[in-house]
Amino acid sequence: MKARVFVTLKNGVLDPQGKAIGHALNNLGFDAVGEVRQGKVIDIELADKDESRARADLKDMCEKLLANTIIEKYEIELKP
Amino acid sequence: MKSAVIVFPASNRDRDSADVLEKVTGTKPYMVWHGETEVPDVDLIVLPGGFSYGDYLRCGAMASQSRIMRDVIAKADKGVAVLGICNGFQILTESRLLPGALMRNAGLKFVSKPVPVEVEETQSMFTRRYRQKQRVVYPVAHGEGNYFADDETLNRLEGEGRVVFRYASGENPNGSARDIAGVLNEKRNVMGLMPHPECACDPMLGPPDGLGLFEGLVEALS
Description:
- The complex is a heterodimer of chains A (80) and B (222).
- Chain A is α+β, with helices and mostly antiparallel strands.
- Helices cover 35% and strands 29% of the residues of chain A.
- Chain A contains two helices and three strands.
- Chain A has a three-stranded antiparallel β-sheet, with helices on one face.
- Chain A is elongated and about 45 Å long.
- Chain B is α/β, with parallel strands linked by helices and 222 residues long.
- Chain B has a nine-stranded mixed β-sheet with strand order 2-1-3-4-11-10-9-6-7, with helices on both faces. Chain B has a two-stranded antiparallel ribbon with strand order 5-8.
- In chain B, helix 1 (14-25) links the parallel strand 1 and strand 2.
- The chains are: A alpha+beta (80), B alpha/beta (222).
- The interface between A and B is medium-sized, with 10 and 19 residues.
C-alpha cells in the first residue's frame, strides 16, 4: 500500500515562500495567479494491508512527526 | 554547578556553549552525544545552536525525536534547567517543552548580525543578573527564527511573564510575533531564545552582554 501525505501551512499562517513564488509567477506574465501557498508531499510505502489501520497509523505519524500541528495541517491519500 | 551540552549531528555552536560554561563554572561541561540514552546528573542542560540533522523536515523536528531527548524531556519535567539556543530553541518547541513554533524568517533571508534585544522579564534564573528592559546585544544567525503562536498563547505568555527577551523596537530580524526573541515554559525552568548569548561572552569579540545570563545561572544553580 502506498500513501501520500500533503503537509501545508494552516490558513492564516504567513507563508513568505508562497508569496515569493506568487510574485515570481506574476513577473513571468501569469497575471491570473493570485495567492500561492507552498507545502510538502511525503510518499510512504506501507506493509499494512488493512486500510483503516493504515489510516490510523498515518494520522499518528502526522501528529507525531510529519506535521507541526501548531502551524501546519495535513491530508492523507491512500493508494492500494 | 554541573552542566551538559547535547551534541547533535550538525550542531555547530556546541563548543561556544561549552567554552562559556567552563569559564563561568570552572568545570568542563559533559558533551553528550544525541545517541546516548541518559544525560549525566547535572543542574543545567544546554541544547546548542546549529543545523541538527541538516534541518530535514523542519528545523529541530528530527532532533526532537532523538534518543537523548527522551531523557532531556524527563529531566526538564523533574525541574532540571534547560536552555535552548537558536536550533536548541527550535528543538524545544518541536519537543513541545516550549509553546509555539519557529517558522521561516518573514524576509526569507538567513540573517546573521548582532541584534539589540531587551530583557523583558528578570524573574527567572536565566535573567536574574539583568535589569528590567536592559538592552543587550546578542548575535543572531538563523533562517527560521520567526516565532509563531496563536493569540491566546501569546497573551498567556505575556500575562504570565514568560516572554523573557524581545527584539528592540524596529530591530525584529525575522518577523517574530510581538517581537518575541525568547520564552519560558510554565515551570520557568526551560528557556529558549533565537539570539546567541554564548557568542557574546568574550570581550575580544565585542561587548560581553551574554555573560550575565550564564553568571545568573551559576548563581541560581550552585
